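A quick aside before the break. I want you to see a complete sequence-to-structure record at least once, exactly as it would be stored in a machine-readable document. Don't worry about memorizing anything.
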Amino acid sequence: MLLLSAGLLSLGAVAYAQAPAAPADAGAKPMRPPADRAALKSHLEKRFDAADANKDGSLTPQERQAQRGETRAKMREHMFARLDADKNGAISKAEFAAAPARGPHAAGKDRGGHRGHMAGGMMRHQLAEYRDKPISRTQFVDAGLGHFDRVDTDHDGKITSAERDAARKAMRDRLAPAHRHSPPPPGL
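That is the input. The structure line, written in tokens, reads:
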């Protein structure tokens, strides 16, 4: 959970650096402008500073756990506000049914709400050794930028839509064997 949170912070930062742009025509899928490495670095530093409760320059497992709790609470509030269309403090069955499908299982839907999944996994692997010990600001930022640098294949400091799509495809291809169901035994 700790490393997932750190990973989500990283990819959330990539998403932060990418505001949606207007589509070229009404039928076109919106294109996001390239993600910027400098903006990501700044965002990661701010996220670290916000989580470093005692301002000692490192995040302890306890500080990371507290940050995860705050992040989850904000996400729940955001999700509730999105569903509560009439803003009466309750989600009716009609509001729930009218909500757009979200998440990795929403057939044919953009997974924009799950941008953190891919980087979360990458950053988790990079920070695995810090599961039970403090992480310095430099280590935290470097882990997030390391993922950015792998996706930025032309090393120009920006992630284009094509680079992002290629990274997603590569991740799906690597994960595909682990997510395939075994065929049933013959005769069943």
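Two observations worth writing down. Residues 1-30, 108-119 have pLDDT under 50 and may be disordered. The helical segments are 2-16, 37-51, 61-83, 93-98, 116-126, 137-151, 161-179. We'll return to this after the break.
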